[in-house]
Predict the 3D structure of the following.
Amino acid sequence: MTTPERPSPTSTARGAGRKAPEAALEGRSDRSSAPSTGLPQLFDAIVDGVALRTLLTLARDEDLGRGGDVTGRLAIPAGFRAVAAVVPRAAGVIAGLAAAPSLLEVFRFEGGFQVRRRDGERCAAGETIAILEGDLRSILALERTLLNVLSRLSGIATATASYVDAVAAAGAEAIVVDTRKTTPGWRTLEKYAVRCGGGSLHRLGLHDAVLLKDNHLAEVPPDGLAAFVSDVAARARAEGFGGVDAVLGGGFVEVEVDTLAQLDAILSLPAESVDIVLLDNMAPEELAEAVRRRGSRRRPLLEASGGVRLESIAQIARSGVDRIAIGALTHSPQALDIGLDIGIDDALDRAGADGGAGPRDHRGRAIDRGAASEERGVASRRGRRSSEEGPDGR
């Protein structure tokens, strides 16, 4: 979540403290790198901690209200301790574990939290991805919020991975990028989840890139398009915009076109004027023609957008475009079904079959599991809670 302050004109291109790799204009992803590479750093760079805690506080308060967990208070003895495993019910790609420390802080959870898988890693159905240890009332109080966050973000990561895999299977090199079609308040979390699934960031918001869309160009006559874009691009570059930040997204100057004639007008400009041309709702044949018209020049990058579906992305990718923007990654993914198994005595043993490496947090740091062994045998309550009850569940 980004801070509400409006960036100054001199810092908007990449944001305060952002660094754009020099090779970013390639517009290609390194498929040899694991999706989890650099994710902790990305999370820290784009997710504002104060805004995240505010979001989680709202989630806590809407669930607990003023009375707290009434059922837990009436049904669970005070001080009863348990071990709980966070377990996906379906295979997928994990995202959201990086937000868990803030969530536990907001809920004032004083027990242990041990991460067994990292964000960006694929998991099998029934595989333990994290362990909670502590007061059972406290675990049940945060259960739904924790599962909602993990289910939503892991669903985005899983959907993104499906699109990325389809592009790779087609033998194409296009990268999959997200859009601003995100849940209000969740934008940077959802964009982080896209990266967990192997996708790339487009722009965080209106503040960190220049994108001339159809509504900006509605009053521009066809014969004046090139001059208008050239003027805006020059002013944008004077404010520090230009180039594509391959890590954080944004920084670029982009123009949307919906006809090949408009593309020709943009291609008539010097190559350094525009970084990306968004080809809106073009058929694969038109996309291939756009690629042909650009020729061998490296810029502008060509980005297909509009109505991209999993069934159609392979044909779109084979057209030769550099980027494919997909709103469905964040506006309509299916949540990954994740549940919480309470009172599994041997959860740590089963989840710890990792060659003796021991439990790790979301950054891969070792966690002392000595206290966990004391919980075994104490947690006698066995239960199974699945997000089949939700993400919409109770």
